[in-house]
Write a structure and sequence with these properties.
By secondary structure, the chain is α/β, with parallel strands linked by helices. The chain folds into four domains: 192 residues, Glycogen Phosphorylase B (Rossmann fold, 3-Layer(aba) Sandwich); 136 residues, Glycogen Phosphorylase B (Rossmann fold), CATH 3.40.50; 196 residues, no CATH class; 91 residues, no CATH class. The protein contains 28 helices and 26 strands. The strands form six sheets. An eight-stranded mixed sheet has the order 18-17-19-20-24-25-16-26, sandwiched between helices. The chain has a six-stranded parallel sheet with strand order 2-1-3-4-5-6. Strand 10, helix 11 and strand 11 form a beta-alpha-beta unit.
Length: 752
């Protein structure tokens, strides 16, 4: 008998021609039914425009099991569903990505449901999407998700995404595909035939490297090959050609056939999350190939949840004979699956029985979210630049800069020593930033040192050296970033011109400030001239620490693209040393052997004439930094220190946007580099007029000319798609191999 209180509408991608998706929604449907409810599947309001049509294996399968499916309600008719159920469930798969919310938000986020309806998200997935694409999408989803009574997610990474974007605390629940047992799945498939032992390769996105992996496994185990492709009609032919193994590739399968081939395989190789899940359910020896374009965090969660991270590979080279033959302990894994199923069922029972609870209006989320992001009790971790002003100012030395898992330093307070003076907060340049967007620089110049050696050995035109000489000639000192013997970068103090090369040249990773601010203050109080050079955030940290202006202090920053992880840099150097079997003696970023415009990176080795030199466009470290944007500090993604309002008196950079008027300089004149010099204050202009310009060729330009080639003056670097993958694998596989994996996936993305 129909009971509205027991009726549950399920929305999501149940209708998609995705074998794993069908299995997932089938399991969710059956589990809700087993719990004493009457589930029904809500048809998409966009059925008429579905390019696969109505006659799909997904819809046909649900018909074959007599599942309850609604008719097609148009978007403006969805509200009629309120008459049939008091509870609606958003199912699993990638339903909380930017693209899904944009396309199906009105359905998936249940905009149609009345206020008194219970709304539940079960094992929802953000895939590999961090919801950074469109702020309006996040705001729209936030308003609707805040009305859900219960929310669970499928990936560990999604917990932070949901919390940070929506202010919602979600539980991690196993994908519903696991709620159906191996025996129950086999009942859906045709009876087993006398099959010759075979390797089933379930491949969503064919590549030559996956083909190589398939052949490697099959050859090692002496298995016949059967390849199942993505179930979508409109991709089969394309993938069939791309796979290039026509004799081994199965024809288009329906859902029951897919189950059949998985359940009878001797070995499973797949680039599908659900394919790997089914391999676990069927207790098959399997290898999963990381598929970054389809939600890599899913693979990480699967690997960690069932202790099978060793079965996750990034390319065919990672598939060793030992891995292929390694026995999987399924007694242990089945116990883990059972525990996760029990947890999921308990969560679902509580969610279905839970009364609707009144919540704060969604506009209160932001302050709550920020409260939870705030870490180390100084400033929000996602905004903390690691400038170390808080550590330097602490009167009882209770703050220590400690590296996180990505290698970036953050302040950690020893509460046993803290006297609650709050100087750390008062000095934090992030918390106390009052930016003046109307501020303009004094003047903008192009120039290069008249000393050819200085110019060649400098990153751009040698302007930094000529400014540093001023302070030193005034019997002063300079502070800047230098390498130590282990090639870590930290700030040092120099007091002679002979030492300038130590702090010259760009380093392309975050420098450790240590006690530099204290030392600068000590020198200023001794009435010395001091020049300090650092990133814009470090310069702001210094000024905040000092708390007042000093006439003999010259602060120099540069147009900062972003700062890289010291940990990533060390793994990169380790990889180079292993390739050349020699310790590194020198790293020279932006080496000019191929001219300034075509700069390269050069690495020299101890006791070895051979050296490493590669165009920065092709070097793995620069690809990680510039091309894939995976190794920068989180605060750099929303930098608070861009623009003309700077703590520095002078800003330096390469003058990439240079447009020489009247051809005053030709290619030959520019081959060794040209500096961009932005004078921000009267003090910076004074040093330039009194000393620097007499040791350089200079000509004045506009700020517009400067910005054309240096967008980093205003814009922050946005995080790349593969950032999580990069740091997850940094200590697992060689640095260059991580970048090769990213290149392979980009190629595959472009092909598809």
């Amino acid at each position: 008998m129909y009971n509205k209180d027991k009726s549950v509408g399920i929305v999501g991608y149940w209708f998609a021609t995705n074998y794993g998706g069908v299995a997932s929604y089938y399991s969710l449907y059956r589990k809700i039914e087993q719990l004493g409810y009457m589930p029904f599947l809500v048809e998409t309001p966009y059925l008429e425009t579905d390019k696969e049509g109505v006659d799909t294996f997904s819809r046909n399968f649900y018909k074959s099991i007599n599942a309850r499916v609604t008719g097609c309600y148009k978007v403006d008719e969805l509200h009629e569903l309120n008459d049939y159920a008091n509870t609606f469930v958003l199912g699993s798969d990638q339903v909380l990505t930017s693209s899904s919310i944009r396309a199906f938000g009105k359905l998936f986020l249940m905009e149609f449901a009345n206020k008194d309806k219970k709304k539940i998200a079960v094992s929802a997935s953000c895939g590999g999407d961090n919801l950074n694409a469109d702020a309006s999408i996040v705001d729209y989803a936030k308003k609707l998700l805040w009305k859900f009574s219960s929310v669970s997610v499928r990936e560990y990474s999604a917990v932070d995404i949901i919390k940070n974007k929506f202010g919602i605390f979600a539980d991690v629940i196993i994908d519903p595909i696991f709620l159906t047992s191996k025996e129950q799945y086999k009942e859906l498939a045709a009876p087993a035939e006398n099959e010759e032992p075979y390797l089933l390769a379930y491949i969503l996105d064919p590549t030559p490297d996956k083909k190589e992996a398939i052949n490697k496994i099959a050859s090692k185990l002496n298995l016949k090959i059967k390849i199942a492709l993505d179930g979508r009609k409109y991709t089969y032919e394309k993938n069939y050609e791309a796979m290039g193994m026509k004799e081994d590739t199965l024809p288009e399968l329906d859902f029951r056939e897919w189950i059949y081939y998985l359940s009878n395989a001797s070995y499973v190789f797949t680039d599908s999350f659900h394919g790997a899940s089914m391999g676990l359910i069927m207790n098959k020896p399997f290898i999963m190939y990381a598929n970054y374009m389809r939600g890599y965090p899913r693979f990480l969660t699967l690997g960690k949840m069932f202790d099978v991270m060793n079965r996750l590979v990034g390319n065919s080279k990672s598939i060793t004979d030992e891995l292929i033959e390694e026995e999987i302990n399924y007694d242990y894994i089945n116990r883990l699956i059972s525990e996760q199923n029990t947890k999921a069922e308990k969560w679902l029972i509580e969610a279905l029985n839970k009364d609707m609870e009144p919540k704060e209006p969604y506009y209160a989320i932001e302050s709550y979210k920020n409260k939870n992001i705030e870490e180390y009790d100084v400033c929000r971790k996602d905004l903390c630049t690691g400038c170390a002003a808080c550590m330097n100012i602490c009167p009882v030395n209770c703050i220590e800069m400690k590296e996180d898992a990505e290698g970036f330093a953050y302040p950690v307070i020893d509460r046993n020593k803290c006297i609650n003076c709050n100087l750390c907060k008062k000095v934090c340049p992030v918390l106390n930033r009052k930016k003046d967007d109307t501020k303009k620089p004094d003047s903008v110049w192009a120039g290069y040192s008249l000393n050819d050696e200085v110019r060649y050995m400098s990153t751009s035109g040698g302007a930094f050296t000529e400014f540093a000489k001023y302070a030193l000639k005034m019997s002063g000192v300079c502070y800047g970033a230098a390498y130590d013997e282990a090639h870590n970068v930290h700030h040092v103090r120099i007091d002679s011109e002979e030492q300038i090369p130590i702090i010259r040249q760009s380093k392309y990773l975050q420098s450790n400030i240590k006690d530099t601010y204290k030392n600068v203050k000590r020198d200023l109080e001794r009435d010395l001239y001091v020049m300090f050079c650092g990133t814009p955030c470090q310069c702001s940290g210094l000024k905040a620490f000092l708390g007042k202006e000093y006439n003999k202090l010259i602060v120099v920053d540069f147009i900062c693209h972003s700062i890289c992880s010291p940990k990533a840099y060390q793994y990169y150097l380790k990889d180079i040393e292993e390739q050349f079997d020699a310790p590194i003696s020198r790293v020279w970023f932006k080496n000019k052997e191929s001219t300034w415009k075509n700069f390269s990176l050069r690495i020299d080795f101890k006791d070895k004439q051979e050296y490493y030199r590669r165009s920065c466009k092709l070097d793995p470290y620069f690809e990680a930094f510039l091309k894939y944007r995976v190794c920068s500090r989180p605060s750099c993604h929303n930098c608070q220190f861009k623009g003309a309002d700077r703590a520095a008196d002078i800003t330096l950079a390469d003058f990439w946007g240079l447009k020489w008027k009247n051809e005053t300089l030709g290619e030959e004149d520019m081959k060794n580099g040209v500096s961009l010099i932005i004078l921000n204050s009267p003090k910076g202009r004074y040093v330039f007029d009194m000393y620097t310009k007499y040791h350089m060729y200079t000509e004045e330009h506009s700020l517009e000319d400067a910005i054309k080639g240096n967008g980093g003056y205003i814009n922050s670097q946005k995080p790349g798609l593969y950032r999580d993958y990069f740091f997850e694998h940094l200590d697992k596989i060689p640095f260059h191999q991580i970048i090769e994996n990213l290149e392979l996936n980009e190629e595959n993305k472009n092909k598809n």
